[in-house]
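Work Package 3 (structural annotation) set out to generate three-dimensional models for the target panel prioritized at the project kickoff. During this period the team completed the workflow that converts sequence records into discrete structure tokens, so that structures can be stored uniformly alongside our sequence database. As a representative example, we reproduce one entry of 309 residues exactly as it appears in the project archive.
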Amino acid sequence: MSEKIKVNIKPIIGSLSVALILWVMVATEKIYSYQIRVPIEIVRLAPGKTLLEPVPEYSVIEVQGKGRSLIATWFYDVRFRLEFPNIKKSQKIDLNDYLSFLDLPATFALSIQGIMESESFDLKIDNQIKRIVPIELSGEIEANDGYVFVDHTFNQDSVTITGPGSKVRKIESILTGSFQQHSTTSTFSHTINLPNPEPGILDIFPRTVQINIDIQRLVERIVYKIPILIRRVPGHLKVTAIPPELALKVKGGEKIVAALESSDIKAEIDYRNQYRPEREEYAVSISTPENISWIESIPKTFSLQVKRK
């Protein structure tokens, strides 16, 4: 039995193939109506003009023709390619008035029966402008214990945005794509995307940026001979801190701490707010550079010597 099936299978397949071809030839010669989903594309506007809002992504049209022509549309990029080279202001567009912009080859011999969806839409336009705005990091960077995230920089600090003036003027900065980096112990670089807040309306250049992450070993150091400044002293008085200088134990990134000088640190006493005749000890207000924190002041408190000039 199995040998007989093997012998007869080829003629059977051949007969079915011939029958299928004949059926397709007959079926595709008949006239049918069919709905096609057609993308809408604005390929040209007047110089200096740009879209203010997206247009509908597609329209649905009903066409009529032979089956073979309808099948051909499955393999052809049928779409509305609209041009408005003289448009000056926003207006309502009726696609029935722009059927000549429908990219549908005449050789298909299809007739358009009607527009079934997105027959009309509001074409909103604005003057096109360019603006340079800064880049801001969106994300979180953490270093391992014993290390510290010092700073990040980009290979360029800004991007160019092109689009409708009423939208571009409101944009103060462009956020990077979300960037997460945890448990790192060394400086590194990474390419990161710049998401477009309104694709199709705004254009951003460049679309990617390189971020450089500065990770340093966390160290401590004592900085000596930091002078104490007495602020808001009446003109008829001379006020001096005793002792006049302090030492400060600080911590931060290894390279930053190594470059730190006493003049980079501010130690102040506000005479007007803090001085009391009966008080003997005064705390000092200390300010350190960014990415540097202080641990301990030596000494912790000071006395004031007040003299008349």
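The domain at 219-308 is CATH 2.170.120.30 (RNA Polymerase Alpha Subunit; Chain A, domain 2).
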